[in-house]
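Tokenised fold entry reproduced for absentees:

. . .
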Amino acid sequence: MAMIAGKIGAQSKSSAAPSFRVGDERLIRLTSSAGDKVTSLLTKQGRPSGVLRVAVVGGGCSGLQYKMDLQDQPQSRDILVESSGVKVVVDPKSALYVTGSELDYVDALTEGGFKVKNPNAATSCSCGESFSA
């Protein structure tokens, strides 16, 4: 009995800590405005040590679109980048599309919000929400 419990405990212990890689701002960089906004949002959600997930998913008028989400921690296989005081995580597939990108935040009534400047985007739609590579 004790041996079975030891194996179960060892398995759950190893799966509790996700394995992720650490990258740098060559993958993605946040402006100070974006960093301040993400920090504010994480604090409001009660997870000041959380991360911003940036992903690229199919959809939008140009074929690919950005998806951003606040999470507690990196997931397995993620790449973690610290920029402007924020921990940003990107999955390996999305990293192919966002490498070299800059995330900015514009506080304006019209055309405000998060903006991604992506050197890999061949075309982007007029709304700025999607792109093709």
Observations:
- Residues 25 and 32 are 13 Å apart (CA to CA).
- The chain has a mean pLDDT of 85.
